[in-house]
Amino acid sequence: MIILIDTEDTPNPNALKFILNHPVISEGSKSIKSSDEVNGDKLAKALFGLNGVTTLFYMDNFITVSKDETVEWDSLEEEVRKSILEHFEPEVAKEISELDINDEIDSNIDAIEKILNERIRPALAMDGGGVEVVSLSPDMVLEVKYFGACGGCPYSTFNTLKAIEGILQRFFDARITVVAI
Q1: Which among 37, 88, 102, 112 is placed 20 to 30 Å from 180, CA to CA?
Q2: What is the pLDDT of residue 100?
């Protein structure tokens, strides 16, 4: 596929929107505020390698590139286009999407584990059981597995599960659904 790029001015004179004929990110958005936040994103690494690039924002089929005031768009715009064309292929788009989703899921699992450790596991341990996070889907379905006394307990399949879901909805994300596997 040939990547076509159009540009659009933004209200910020130091930011320019580069619109592609191909999705940049499969869902949501991604803001990268410095080269320290690149985390394996090849396109971001290439763009931050250009003189003057200060921040990046990905969403749908566009990338907003911000620059510092010492650099003019006359020289930077063509360099950004060239970097996008050189580095933006369908495989790279897939990498960006998967990296973004995987990073977000890992971060969310860490937050969930913290809540489980503070609010749920101590109570389950008092009854001789526990709960383990198996997976979290991008659409916020958390799969858990009970073990110990909770593993065969009829209360864990409904009451405890709903309590865990309620706590996570309150302290983590109202969209989360918890299922036992």
Answers
A1: 102
A2: 53
Query: Residue 147 CA to chain centroid, in angstroms?
Result: 30
CA distance 158 to 23: 41
CA distances from 111 to 80, 90, 115, 164, 180 (A): 36, 32, 6, 14, 19
Residues 50-54: contacts with CB within 8 Å, 24+ apart? Answer: 50/76, 50/79, 50/80, 50/83, 51/76, 52/76, 53/80, 54/14
The order of strands in the sheet holding 29-32 is 5-9, 15-20, 62-67, 53-59, 29-32
Sheet holding 177-180, edge to edge: 129-136, 141-148, 177-180
Q: What angle do CA 47, 52, 58 make, to 5 degrees?
A: 40
pLDDT in tens, 130-152: 888 999 988 889 999 887 767 66
The strand pair at 29-32 and 129-136 is best described as unpaired
Its pTM stands at 0.50
pLDDT computed for residue 156 by the predictor:
64
Nearest to 106 by CA among 61, 141, 85, 136: 136
Reply yes or no on domain 5-88 having CATH 3.30.1370.70: yes
Q: In CATH terms, is domain 106-180 a member of 3.30.1490.100?
A: no
